[in-house]
Design brief:
Elements: E1 22-31, H1 44-59, E2 68-72, H2 78-86, H3 92-95, E3 101-105, E4 110-114, E5 120-127, H4 131-146, E6 153-154, E7 158-159, E8 171-178, H5 180-184, H6 188-197, E9 200-203, E10 216-221, H7 229-257, H8 259-275, H9 281-296, H10 306-314, H11 317-324, H12 330-351
Antiparallel strand pairs: 1-5, 1-8, 2-3, 3-4, 4-5, 6-7, 8-10, 9-10
Helix pairs in contact: 2-11, 8-9, 9-10
């Protein structure tokens, strides 16, 4: 598993349109192979057959699509699987499936989960708010695979999926957003309620069933049946733009009306991150969120915003274990996390 500077996938290193708030965009297509039992009903032989068919299809892709490496879940230990979850390259569900695998494009802009809830989950991952571009990437991969793989498809319903919610286009678009301004201004809950009425669901850092960590939220479409792919991507792009504008307005209001409190919050976070000797995961995420807010508001102009993205990934439990070796006690992991943060912030200040 990657470590150090390779810990953060390219799509999460910062930048991209509205990259100060919209950290990344993910477009996911659910596809199943015709004539094969869907994963919830497949046995080991069927899972192996699907994997081999996908492997053959990937090998036949033109060079322009980039190379892929296939990683089988059975070949990884628990921390190895969780590391991929923390990179957002696989889902927590796939990490639990011994028959599952993931095909990773070498630049990590595309991740294809195999034998998760569906035979294929084609994911395009880009930095910033780029729903249309992510759709074009995912659609290109989908078309290329469909040239040699026949998908389960109904003229009446569209693409068939294990879950009725994914029937139709099979498209789920999501944007990962850092929203500390809305949270601190107590505007997040009303906004999320309004989004729900628009068919947009808000989830935590790792999607469905996960909690919000470090003021990070994923906003995504809820329904794909009866809608065109471009319509879904365009709608989420527009909604994402509105959320970005609301977050920027909340930050401006906070800085204009509660500047001392915000500066104190950022200073306390900086002090703890650069001095603490033990740093639990949840506390680290909260403090790093405050640090990033301070960077974006120019309270800490000497630090690179990409530091937040890097440490958000590298301080997760599985990554710490992957970098440091076997860690059998939470207190040891908390000490390693605190040391890593102190060292990286100090290094970033020197580089700044």
């Amino acid at each position: 598993m990657p470590s150090g500077d390779q810990a953060v996938p390219g799509w999460m290193t910062g930048g991209g349109p509205a990259g100060d708030i919209a950290l990344s965009t993910r477009l996911r297509l659910a596809r199943n192979l015709a004539g094969e039992p869907f994963p919830p009903r497949q046995d080991g032989a069927a899972a192996s057959r699907v994997l081999q068919r996908v492997r053959t299809a990937l090998a036949a892709l033109p060079e322009a699509h980039g190379g892929y490496r296939i990683v089988r879940m059975a070949e990884l230990d628990g921390p190895g699987r969780q590391t991929l979850v923390e990179q957002h390259l696989i889902s927590p569900l796939l990490a639990l499936r011994a028959a599952g695998a993931v095909a990773l494009r070498l630049d990590q802009s595309v991740s294809i989960m195999i034998n998760e809830e569906d035979h294929l989950r084609i994911q395009a991952l880009l930095p910033g708010l780029q729903c249309a571009d992510a759709w074009r990437v995912a659609d290109g991969v989908d078309d290329a695979l469909n040239a040699s793989l026949e998908y389960a498809f109904s003229e009446e319903l569209g693409y068939l999926a294990a879950s009725p919610a994914n029937v139709g286009t099979g498209l789920r678009a999501s944007v990962m957003m850092h929203l500390p301004g809305l949270v601190l201004a107590s505007q997040a809950a009303p906004l999320f309620a309004n989004l729900a009425q628009m068919g947009v669901v808000v989830r935590g850092l790792h999607g469905e069933g996960s909690a919000a960590v470090g003021n990070l939220f994923q906003i995504s479409n809820q329904v794909s049946l009866g809608l065109a792919e471009e319509e879904i991507a365009g709608s989420l792009q527009a909604i994402g733009r509105q959320v970005v504008d609301r977050e920027r307005s909340a930050r401006e209001w906070l800085f204009a009306n509660r500047r001392t409190q915000i500066e104190d919050r950022v200073a306390r976070a900086y002090g703890l991150l650069t001095n603490a000797r033990l740093m639990p995961s949840a506390e680290a995420a909260a403090l790093l969120s405050d640090l990033r807010l301070g960077i974006d508001l120019h309270v800490l102009p000497h630090l690179d915003p990409a530091l937040f993205n890097e440490l958000l990934v590298r301080t997760r439990p599985a990554f710490l274990q992957a970098e440091a070796g076997a860690v059998d006690h939470p207190a040891v992991r908390d000490a390693l996390r605190a040391t890593l943060i102190r060292q990286r912030v100090t290094q970033a200040e020197r580089q700044g």
